[in-house]
Amino acid sequence: MAVTETKLYADKTKEIGLTPVMQQYVELKSANPGSLLFFRMGDFYELFFDDAKDASRALGIVLTSRGKYLGKEIPMCGVPVSRADEYLNRLIQMGHIVAVVEQLEDPEEARKRGAKAIVKRDVVRLITPGTITEDILLDAGRANYLLSIVRWNVSVNAVATYGLAWVDLSTGIFRVSEVGADRLMSELVRVDPVEIILPDYLFEDQKYQQGIIQHIKASIVPLPAKMFSSSDVKQRLIHWYGLENQQEINSLTFAEQAAVSGVLAYVERTQFDTKARLEIPKRDQYEKIMLMDAFTRSSLELVKTQSGERIGSLVNIIDRTVTSLGRRLLVERLSSPSTDLTTIQNRLDSVSRLYGDRDLCDALRDMLRDAPDILRSLSRLGLDRAGPRDLAAIRDSLDVAKRTAALLDQFSDLPNEMRMVHMACNSAPEGLYDTLKSALCSTLPQHKRDGGFIAEGYNEVLDKNRELSSDFHRHIVSLEHKYITATSIKSLKIRRNNILGFFIEVSPQQGEKLLAAQVFGNFIHRQSLVSAMRFTTEELFKLDSQINIAREQVLAQELELFGELSVKVLLEENSMRLLAEALATIDVSAGLANLACTELWCQPVVEDSLVLKIESGRHPIVEKSLKVANDNPFIANNCDISPVDDVYGRLIILTGPNMGGKSTWLRQNALIVLLAQMGSFVPAASATIGIVDRLFSRVGATDDLSRGCSTFMLEMLETSAILRQATSKSLVVFDEIGRGTSTFDGLAIAWGVVEYLIEVSQCRAIFATHYHELTILSDQLPRVENHTVKVKEWKNEVTFLREVVPGIASRSYGIHVAQFAGLPDVVIKRAQGILKMLETSRPVPLQVCAKDEDMEEVNSADDLPDGCLQVIENLESIVPDTLTPREALESLYFLKSLLNHRVAAQDNLN
Hints:
The protein is α/β, with parallel strands linked by helices. Strand 22 (695-698), helix 28 (711-725) and strand 23 (731-735) form a beta-alpha-beta unit.
């Protein structure tokens, strides 16, 4: 419903005669414009007016009506409370914001205020993509980040920086950083938030809005600039964490403080009076993380394919984790490979230790399968949205920690990372595990409101009330038997529902007899259905009230015990977070070790140098797809772009046929570097990797028509960004730069890019191209080498061997690929003829592709038009290296005159 409509309803509620409940709805809707209002009415969430129309279309549910407004029926639709999560999930996925309105009192309390009193209701929560905490709404393998971004200028002439703060409300993770404009988009893509909040002034800046929209599929929410005030952050942090020591706040830059202020203000705004359990903001050391721009991440398909699917991505290939904690950590490491040698080595040592002990690795993985997602359970406990199964998740994780610690106790040769895991598991609060084990039943309901989750024997008072409640149920069974005996109606049943409570149910025929018989005083008629009649008696009504009181007492006691258990868990929050980190870490290490064992990957040597030498490297995604398809085995290849003089890395110019495997080789070398620096073994026989600070991959053709960017324009934009950012420690892989324009323009651009990479960037690089002219650069520029992909030709058939070797390709074999693709024979033959003429510098006569029998190949000089031989003879007599500029110009004019003469003669003949 539009804001103007809402205001109209709010202003005219008395005039237009809306019912009190609808007046309440309109007032709450007016206070929350832009949100779909989930209005709690009993067992349903109802939506009205335009909200109902929008939700009905989005969810595919029936649109009905309730009451009238200005003579027209008010649209209405609703969803059951018990199934609300699945409907919320669909709405959030579509980008809607949902305001949840709950009943704040029991309807009985409202009735005490008078017959026309309505139940008190209010918005308790705004659900947005970045603030959801329910498991059914979340991806278990992906962090759910809400990110705040602020532009910060120290002075008018100063270069702007950007403060970033991102929080995962479902786990409590809280990070901050400050970056320059050149790194902003790379950081946003790395964090990969689901929702971005920013000041309205920045949202109105089309440059940044378009940049964000282009690279990130996130909900973008502009907010008033005052919410991002760095002067308010201290008060907000003190309110949030109760900090007496301001050291944590003072360590943040002003830009980071402003971003933190914005994200906390937004969380407060969406969660109302509920305070989320968030970590103290921790600075993300992006300077120790390999920089990759959005194009590189998309090209290498790290966490999703270019079509947006997880299946087929690198993470899908390497993910052998068995917990959601480990799955998220794996994605984080893959998205943020380290440039810190100590960090990388610690991770590799852990994987290596488990790689060398398969029994230990398998035992750990078996234990970890029982570890739930304790971080998300902790978060729900802090937000008072948890259920009994969240307490069980804490209990089960503590059990896994105890067993893991016992297993690791047997080993004294654990590497650093595994020792930290061992310490965290040993430090897990054992007393909390004992408490939760004795308190919780073996089978638990999803919601605490359902009751029945506290184990028998944990609380004496609860056990006594349960016993009384059970006695009442025995009375119900006894009463049913009594009524059957008295009425001789063997089909008589005493049943219960949430509306009528306990009631007597018989068939319609027997019901009429009961009304006439006047058995036991009178059976009081309650309800008539097509297949049954329902009654009660004063005796049954009294017993029903007693049972309800007992049930409410039992549930109230269980809820009170649930609260006490939650407090005990949250008091151990810090140790539980350390445990979660430990379980995630060992899960990733064990998963990577299992991957290395089964796929025959090797441990890379990572060092602080410019070496990059890979022997028998393989592309992990392509290799896996070949195995699945039972195709030919993947052809492994070497790569060495290490420095010759120990100063700067080399550049390889790679030529070879289309479909020969050039792009695969480019990507696999980039992926091997990335895997090594995330702390994984790699698909190769051996690999020595000098740390890469920035990885750039420009492979594949795309466009962005929404921004008016053609394929070539986008290629140039990406190339420009790479050349401006690459350093001597970077790795750059380029594929077919310059192909989107004319031949000579493209060649000139590619030539210039290669020279820049060698002379300015001085980085390690691979440059794949079909411009064979570039291969002469190996004679002119130091550190440039030529490689090609081998091809076998036999009896007019071509086989691509996909083996990369030193050398230069003689041809591109594009026509052969076209033939494989199924182009008509007439086109193939025509292309072959044209190619022969072009390769011998012969002009191409106009000819229409027609029937096969009309096609003739040009095989000799006799087939050339008159006058062209004279041009060729003159060209052959010219020695370019001996010509002066003037002589070269005169020769060009002479050749031009010969061709003009030929054209004039042809015109005269015509």
